[in-house]
Amino acid sequence: MLPLLRKPFSISNSRISSTARYYNHLAPRFFGLARASNPVEVARGSMKTVLGEVKEHLSRAWQNPTIRKRVGWGLGIFLVLQLYFVRELIAAELLFGMLFAFLMALAGLFYVVGTIGVNGRVWAEAGVRVVANSARRGYSALEEISKKPFRHPHSESAR
Question: What is the pTM of this model?
Answer without folding.
Answer: 0.36
